[in-house]
Amino acid sequence: MFKQLTHILEMIRFSHTVFAMPFALLAAVMAWAGPTASGERIQFSWPQFLGILLCMVFARSAAMAVNRLADKDIDAENPRTANRHIPAGLLSVGSVTIFTVVCSLLFIASTLLFLPNWLPIVLSVPVLFFLFGYSYTKRWTSLAHFWLGVSLMLAPVCTWIALRGAEIIQHPADILPSVVLGAVVMLWVAGFDIIYACQDAEFDKKAKLKSVPSTLGIPGALKVAAACHAMMIVMLCVLPYSYPPLGAIYWAGVIVVAGLLAYEHWLVRPDNLSQVNIAFFHVNTVVGIGLFLVTSLDLLL
C-alpha cells in the first residue's frame, strides 16, 4: 500500500503543486488583508485556510490523474514518457480511476465543509469538468497551453470567490483583483508550458497532436512563450491599480520576477533544449513561491 501511494504521488507530481498553490494562498492573503468594496475586512479563519489547502490538493490531484488516464496510450508511444506509471505497469487504470473519484469527492466535500458561502459548492463540479477538459485539448487545438493556464488561473479566482462570495454578489467589481492575479497566472503557466512542450514538438507532429511548438516550430514557440511572460509582467504592474494596498516591496518583487523570466528564456534556446527541466521546474518554483512571499510580506508590513 505504501508503494502504491508513493507511485500515485509520483504520478500526479505532487511536488508540482508549487505552481498553483502559492497563488491560491496569495489570493487568500489579499482577500483577508485588503478592504472589500463595502469597506469592511474579511476575518482570517483557520477552517477556511484548511479548506483552501484541501480544495487545491484534491482538485489538482484529480485533474492530474485524469491527465494520466487520458494520455496513457500517447505516453506509451512517446519515448520521453513511456516510463510513466500507467504505461510502465506500475499503476493500473482501475486504481488511478478510483483515486480520481475519491479526490473529486473530497474536493466537493471540502467546499461544503470548510468554506464560508454557497458559491464554491455550486461551482465545484463545473470547475472539475473544466480541469478535466484540459487533458483532451491537444487533440483538437494548439491553444491547449492556454487552457492549462486558465485551469491554474482558477486557483486565485476561486479562492477569492470562496472568501468574498457574499461581497461579490453585492459588489461584482470586488472580484477584479483576483481576475488580474489570475491573468498573471494564466500567462505565466501558458508561457512555461509552451517551453516544456518544445521537447515533444517532433513527436506531436507524428502523433497528430496539436501544440504551439508542433504548429509554429520551436523558434516560433519560444517567441510566443516570451510574449506570454512579457504580458505577465504587464499584468503584475496592473495589479496594484486594482488592489491599492500593494507597495514598494511588491514592486521590488516584480523586478526580480522579470529578471528570473529573462533568465528562463536565456536557458532555453531553439538549438539547445537541454535546460528545459531547470527552466520549467526550478526557475518557476522560485517565481511562484517568491511572489507569494514578497507580496505577503508587503501586505503584512
Most strands sheet = none
Q: Which architecture name does CATH use?
A: Orthogonal Bundle
Mean pLDDT across residues = 93
- How helix-rich are the residues, as a percent range? over 70%
| Fold-level CATH name | Tetracycline Repressor, domain 2
CATH superfamily annotation = UbiA prenyltransferase
Q: What's the number of structural domains?
A: 1
Low-confidence stretches: none
Run of helices and strands = HHHHHHHHHHHH
| Top-tier CATH class | Mainly Alpha
Gyration radius (Cα, Å) is: 19 Å
Please give the count of helices: 12
Tell me the structural class: mainly alpha
- Residues in β-strands, percent: under 5%
The N- and C-terminal alpha carbons lie at a distance of 46 Å
How many strands? 0
